[in-house]
Amino acid sequence: MAGHGDPPEGPPEETPDGQPPGGDDEYRSVVFDESFVRAARLQEFSARERMTDRERAVRVRGPRSGTVSHGFRNGPRQLLALFVLIALAFGTAVYLGFRQPYRLQSGARSVAELRTTVVPLVPAGPVPGGTPAALLARSPAAHFATGAEGIVFPRTVERTEDFSEGQIRMALAIVRDYLVASSLNADVLAGRDREPVRALLDADQIPEFDRTFAATSATAARVPAGWLVAFDPARVRQVAGATRVHGSLDYRQAADRSLEVTSDHTFVYALRPAGPAAADGASLFTVRREMRFRFDREDLDKHLAQVVESQVAAGPEPCSARAGGTFAPLLAGSRAPSGGPAGLDPYAPGPLSGQLCAVLTTAAPGSAAG
């Protein structure tokens, strides 16, 4: 007789491996109690419900009231973890911002106005004339390089506390580009274009640059010479290829943790009158420019410069040369009264004098020959 719970035909025969026929018994210990069934997400429709026209045989059950899903239970923990991650990221950003070596100590980016000093140099006698080659050969500029070749980097460049060697070389390259644009560009020298210089300025200095060239007052008329070298094309014509340049570049890290580059260069131009002139009617005009530039990280990234200071000595020209933003060279054979008791040699190293006008010494081209 079959035991209780066995089928009428008796217990099933075992397979050779000791398992009942028809499959394994790994699920025999699993009990699908009532709570398990009620918690199922999928529920089969009843016979009455299946008689209706339904596309699916099961329904998806929502969570029972009074129960909380696993994902919802973990929600607060996930939100807390997300909050902690955001706080850490924000704190890291703030920390790195305060540690940024290129940020000015004031915490706010500021660009100072350009400080400019221009000293006209008057000749002690008539301005000598001749061919450009002959004049240059007899001048202290005889050994100067031609054009941009005279603007060279320091022999060695070493990193500072906050600026790498590559960043310093970038700053030196920007200064070199500025000097070429403002002292050697033919269109800038002829007064036809200022954009090559303007394009290299920090954006915060451009309004000052534009105001400088828009000014008409006598006190502001000579300030443009602090930004660039320009001649009146109605009076003067530059001899192409005859410009000689000599000077130096240096750098240091300033107290506000910006990078400063100083340039000290003498530019010698061969000039002729704007109209028809004899082949030997040229004369030399010398411009000594001492400039100081400042850079922060933003300037280096954008290949721009802040021009902080510009000291210029130029001649031969009269002390009264104050009209317009261009230089007023005295050409071959011209004379001018002495500008004062002291002389100034634009070829000599060292700081420029603070005089408003000075005599061009005999060591410089354009001076009288006795």
Whole-number radius of gyration?
42 Å
Mean pLDDT equals: 78
Which structural class do you get from the secondary structure elements? alpha/beta
What is the helix fraction of residues, given as a range?
Answer: 10-25%
Element string (H = helix, E = strand): HEHEHEHEHHHHEEEEHEEE
Q: How many individual helices?
A: 9
Largest sheet: 9 strands, mixed
Would you give an account of this structure?
- The protein is of the alpha/beta class and 370 residues long.
- Helices cover 24% and strands 19% of the residues.
- It contains 9 helices and 11 strands.
- It has helices spanning 34-39, 47-51, 70-99, 132-137, 165-183, 186-189, 195-198, 206-214, 297-302, and strands spanning 42-44, 58-60, 115-122, 145-146, 236-238, 244-253, 259-273, 283-295, 306-315, 343-344, 358-360.
- The strands form 2 sheets. Strands 3, 4, 5, 6, 7, 8, 9, 10 and 11 form a 9-stranded mixed beta sheet that branches.
- A hairpin with a 5-residue loop joins β6 (244-253) and β7 (259-273).
- The radius of gyration is 42 Å and the shape is elongated.
- It starts with 33 loop residues before the first helix and ends in a 10-residue tail after the last strand.
- Mean pLDDT is 78; it is low at 65-69, 97-107 and 364-370.
What is the topological layout?
Blueprint: H1 34-39, E1 42-44, H2 47-51, E2 58-60, H3 70-99, E3 115-122, H4 132-137, E4 145-146, H5 165-183, H6 186-189, H7 195-198, H8 206-214, E5 236-238, E6 244-253, E7 259-273, E8 283-295, H9 297-302, E9 306-315, E10 343-344, E11 358-360
Parallel strand pairs: 3-9, 3-11, 10-11
Antiparallel strand pairs: 1-2, 4-6, 5-7, 6-7, 7-8, 8-9
